[in-house]
Amino acid sequence: MMPATGVVAVGTVSQVVDGDTIKVRFTREVAIRIADCWAPEKKRTDHHSEKPRGIAARDAMELLADGERVRVVVRTDGDEDFGDSLTFGRVVADVYRESDGKNLAKGMIQKGHAFRTKAELEAFLEQKDAEQ
């Protein structure tokens, strides 16, 4: 279900950066940080178990979204202010495949490649590190 308020644009996924960031081509390419989707990082981190899971998350996002037409919804809470929707040069947004309406964040979470919050991701990684 799409959010009630926000700015909507349709484009094509031109690159999958990692499990929670994609680049979408509109009239220009824009980096999109997928809202409510916390995937493991693919670079070296403090968690020993994170890098391989980050690579797997990127691969899963490629299967889910690479080359797909997507609907990007930037949440604005009705005031059309993008201030809270920008992070590290990326726009934070909900992203849906045009072909079937699938929410990319939910797809990644359902497949076990991402979590809804950073705290859930951190707890999972700490558990996996303790198991090694």
First-to-last CA distance: 39 Å
Number of distinct beta strands? 6
Question: How helix-rich are the residues, as a percent range?
Answer: 25-40%
Strand content: 25-35%
Task: Please report the number of helical segments.
Answer: 3
Strand neighbour order, sheet with most strands? 1-2-3-6-4
Q: Radius of gyration over alpha carbons? A: 15 Å
Q: How would you sum up the major sheet?
A: 5 strands, mixed, barrel
Structural class: alpha+beta
Summarize the structure.
The chain has 132 residues and is an alpha+beta fold. It is 28% helix and 30% strand.
Sequence-ordered SSE layout with sheet pairings:
Elements: E1 7-18, E2 21-25, E3 29-34, H1 50-65, E4 69-74, E5 86-87, E6 90-97, H2 104-110, H3 118-131
Parallel strand pairs: 3-6
Antiparallel strand pairs: 1-2, 1-4, 2-3, 4-6, 5-6
Describe this structure in words.
The model has no long low-confidence stretch (mean pLDDT about 90). It is globular and about 45 Å long. With about 130 residues, it is of the alpha+beta class. The chain has a single domain (about 5-130), classed as OB fold (Dihydrolipoamide Acetyltransferase, E2P), CATH 2.40.50. The longest helix is centred in the middle third of the chain and has 16 residues, at about 50-65. A five-stranded mixed beta barrel has the order 1-2-3-6-4. Helix content is about 30%, strand content about 30%.
